[in-house]
Input
Amino acid sequence: MKLDEKQINREVIFQGKIFNVYKDKIILPDETESFRELVEHKGGVCIAAKTENNNYLMVTQYRYPIKQIFFEFVAGKKEQNEDPLKTAQRELIEETGYQAKNFIYMGSFVPTCGYSSEIIDMYYADDLTFVGQDLDENEFLNVSSIKLDDLIEMIMNNEVTDAKTIILALKLKNLGK
Output
């Protein structure tokens, strides 16, 4: 059965710094017309940075849309046309103050395919050197570290609910990192 949908036209609803919102008129597989609302996002990265004592660097920050404090791996948004590895290198220094000698690509995932184009690329990083934290303006977070098994336990107890952290932690556990 044919499943793809074809865009007929696009209405701009909102254009912002982080994302754009569109309402697209489409043709469905059965040739009828419908509409889709779409959030266009540049994408982001998530980094599991392993310390010399085999812990992982974590950040704790308030996430306004959910109105909660989250415990997460380091993450950030890509700049326009920025290579994801460059984003990961930049974000690790900005948020934690650590620079990594080694980065290993761990794959990507689509967090909300029903309405957003966002893709998050995941990295494992190690051989860290502290070079100084450089937070973005209006960014507030705390940095800590945790053993992977303890993080997995927090995930299983529903104490960590951030999708990118859960997915990357489970990949790390499966690969024996």
